[in-house]
Design a protein that fits this description.
The chain is mainly alpha-helical. 66% of the residues lie in helices and 8% in strands. It has a 3-stranded antiparallel beta sheet.
């Protein structure tokens, strides 16, 4: 899958600038489809050229003018067609930390890497919980799921939360193994 569909899906939430999309990616898409701001801006240009999004300029007083993007009917239709197709292949884990652990010779050095990963996971969980609170807006999860027009962002948020919770469980297990190995030496 290309970044195209992630950007189109993000625009389902409404008109957004490239900067706003970049921030939205940080809190919602980054866990399962990361993109740099530069990649997002390039993709927005392609989508505009292909007629899948429209851009309008907004003049600003003290800042540079900005472009606001919205989905076109063609963009919605393309996204709708994509959404019903089965994925081409299952997800795959690409994680530099796993390569480092595979090559590990020093359990103490690996310990620091795992601690750093735990810090990242906790930070993402905190951010995801703030997003969850904002989405629920005082409602229970059941109320939100029953009443909300769009539940997709909440469902993907739940996946991000469970992913980071599993990362923490895995890190705790790795630390226990590393502690045991250091104790043997």
């Amino acid at each position: 899958m290309s970044l195209k569909y992630a950007v189109l899906a993000a625009l389902l939430e409404g008109e957004a600038s490239g900067y706003e999309l970049s921030k939205a990616f940080d809190v919602s898409f980054a866990n399962f489809w990361p993109a740099t701001p530069q990649q997002l801006y390039r993709e927005l240009e392609r989508l505009a050229q292909d007629g899948l999004v429209e851009a309008r300029f907004v003049q600003q007083e003290r800042r540079p003018n900005k472009r606001m993007f919205t989905l076109t009917p063609a963009g919605r239709e393309d996204l709708r067609a994509f959404a019903v197709e089965p994925p081409r292949r299952p997800s795959a884990v690409r994680d530099e930390l796993l390569i480092k652990l595979q090559a590990m010779e020093d359990p103490e050095a690996a310990h620091a890497l795992i601690e750093e990963r735990m810090t990242w996971a906790r930070g993402k969980l905190d951010r995801y919980e703030r997003v969850r609170d904002r989405l629920l807006d005082g409602r229970t999860e059941d109320e939100f799921l029953r009443e909300s027009d769009r539940v997709g962002p909440y469902l993907t948020l739940l996946r991000g939360i469970s992913f980071e919770e599993e990362n923490l469980r895995w890190c705790e297990r790795v630390l226990a193994v590393l502690k045991h190995r250091v104790g043997r030496g």
